Every structure is written in C-alpha cells, then in structure tokens.
UniProtKB/TrEMBL annotation:
Keywords: ATP-binding, Kinase, Nucleotide-binding, Transferase. One of its GO terms (cellular component) is cytosol. CDD domains: FruK_PfkB_like. This is 1-phosphofructokinase family hexose kinase. Signal peptide: none annotated. It comes from the Bacteria. Gene3D superfamilies: 3.40.1190.20.
Length: 325
C-alpha cells in the first residue's frame, strides 16, 4: 500500500484561456475543470490510474465537496474530521502552457484535528510500503510538522517521501541530523534556498546543459544527512542524486498545456518505479516521463500509464569529475 498525506487539500479549479493573460483585462475562458487536488491527492490519483493500491489521507468533513469529488474520481481515501471547508485553488493556463496559480490558505486545523491527522499517518507505518507527505501546511499546523512525522517514523519499515516548500521545507532540512526522509523532491528554487545558492544560476546552468551546480547543491544535502534528492527542473527534466551517484534525465519534446500536477506526477512516477524494484536511473526516467505526460494534458488531468512514454526519456549518469566543486 502507498499512503499519501495531504494536510492542505484543495478543489483544483483550472480555467484555460485562448490567449495570453493580461492583468486588468476581461478574458474569455475556453474550458474549465474542477478536480479533487492537493499534492498528495494528485500523487494518489496518478498511482491509482496505474493500478497501485493507494489511500489518500487528508482532513475534510464528511459532507465536504472534496469527499464527494474523491468518491466520484474513484480515489480510495481516509479523512480526519475538520471544522472548516476544503479550499478551492484556481489555476489559469494560457495557450502556450504558462500557468498562473491562485491558492487559498486552507481550513485551519485545531489541536485535536492535528493530533488525529498525526496518529492516522503513524498508524500506517507497518502496513505501507511508502508514505508520501506532500504540499503546504494549513493554518494551525506548526512549520516542523513534516519534520516531526519523519522523526517519529524513523526506523519504520516504510519508505518516506516529502514534497513541500518554504518554512516546512526549511524545518525538514534542519532536522536532518535526527531523521531524514528517503526521498525529497525540491525544484530548483527550493533546492537553492536550502543551500544558499542562486536559483537563477542553477536554472541557467541546466538550460546550458550543465547540471553540475544542481548536483553539487543536492550533494550538500546528502552530506547533511539527506538520502535521495529528486530535483525537478520543468522543461529541462530532472536530476537525481543519492550517495551512490547522480543522474540527469532529459524529457521528450511535448506541447505543454498545463503544469498543474506535473511535479506531483513526477513524484508518482518515481514511487511507481521504486515499488516495482527499479534502480535509481529507471526511477528518474519514470519520474520525468510522468511529469512530461502531465504537462501535455489540459487542466489538472493526470496521466494514465498508456499516456506515459518512459523510453522517450534519456537518462545520463553524471560522473563525480564532471561536477563542479
């Protein structure tokens, strides 16, 4: 079983425009969709499409629209009762695939709800093969909640993945001396923030075919106690670094339609490959294939296996001598 945890779920509303977004202008929407979302929910949806046994854990009331949407989508889920309603996030996609997101803060969790969520996650420690902790934290949840859960699951037989940003990510990295997840999935900006680097420098280097600054930054986290770092780089692909080596994957050419859920799909692809016993290069290949397939789909649609072309992704092993100190 793969358990995904989404402390701050959302109804993801995506509207598509036929032209470029202009601030202050009136736009005509060409299409609109609403899906149950939040990063962990997206991972569960993508893995469910691949036939894997998954459960999405999230806070939501029994009569919340989110619960109705999850049932309609055929997602296996477990909720923790909460007083507020699940937020709605808006994504605006332009004809060239450019995506603008407007995310609400989410319903606050009181102490009782947070305690119930924590104990629900911990209850899966023995039965899950992977626990995936994803997304922002809602009001009322301390920044170090992910770090605390990772520490409390240290020594459990399940694998842990964390995909978050800003202060929760900083708190997670600060706890590497105590415990670290088996996988972290930052983007270039998040990775740069963790090591005090320039995100522009990392992105420019990759655009010029030089992944060494990204690999060097990821290796700094490995030296601090991290286990595996999957750095997603948008249209440039992704980099995977662990104590045994580093790899770069180049995606196939696609026509981007929406980036909503692309990073979550990459994480789902990695976990799918890992569950199947794949070695790191193949895990990276699957991750990039899934992310590319998601970006080629409209709205917040997530790819089915038939839409994922793994063999179209090129993977290169990066030798230590090729990495800038």
């Amino acid at each position: 079983m793969i358990v995904t945890v989404t402390p701050n779920p959302s109804i993801d509303r995506t509207v598509s425009l036929g032209a470029s977004l202009v601030r202050g202008a009136v736009h005509r929407v060409t299409s609109a969709t609403s899906e149950p979302g939040g990063k962990g929910v997206n991972v569960a949806r993508a893995l469910g499409l691949a036939g894997l046994d998954t459960v999405a854990v999230l806070p939501a009331g029994d009569d919340d629209a989110m619960v109705t949407a999850l049932r309609a989508a055929g997602v296996n889920f477990r909720t923790v009762p909460v007083g507020g309603v699940v937020r709605t996030n808006l994504a605006i996609t332009e004809a060239d695939g450019t995506t603008t997101k407007l995310n609400e803060p989410g319903a606050a969790l009181d102490a009782a709800a947070l305690d119930a969520l924590t104990h629900t996650v911990l209850s899966y420690a023995e039965s899950a093969s992977w626990i995936v902790l994803s997304g922002s934290l809602p009001p009322g949840v301390p920044d170090d909640w992910y770090a605390d859960v990772v520490a409390r699951l240290a020594g459990a037989p399940c694998q842990l993945a964390v995909d978050t940003s800003e202060r929760p990510l900083d708190a997670l990295a600060a706890g590497f001396g105590t415990a670290a997840p088996d996988l972290m999935k930052p983007n270039a900006e998040e990775l740069a923030g963790l090591v005090g680097a320039s995100p522009e420098e990392l992105e420019d280097a990759v655009a010029q075919g030089d992944p060494s600054p990204v690999i060097s930054a990821a290796n700094q986290l490995i030296e601090r106690g991290a286990k595996t770092i999957l750095v997603t780089l948008g249209a440039a692909g992704a980099v995977l670094v662990d104590p045994t080596g580093s790899w770069m994957a180049a995606p196939p050419p696609i026509t981007p339609k929406s980036t909503v859920g692309a990073g979550d799909s990459s994480l789902a692809g990695y976990v799918r490959a890992a569950v199947g016993g794949a070695e790191p290069p193949r895990r990276l290949q699957m991750a990039v294939a899934y992310g590319s397939a998601a970006a080629a789909l409209p709205g917040s649609a997530l790819p089915a296996p038939s839409q994922v072309d793994v063999n179209a992704v090129r993977v290169f092993s990066i030798t230590p001598s090729a990495v800038r100190p």
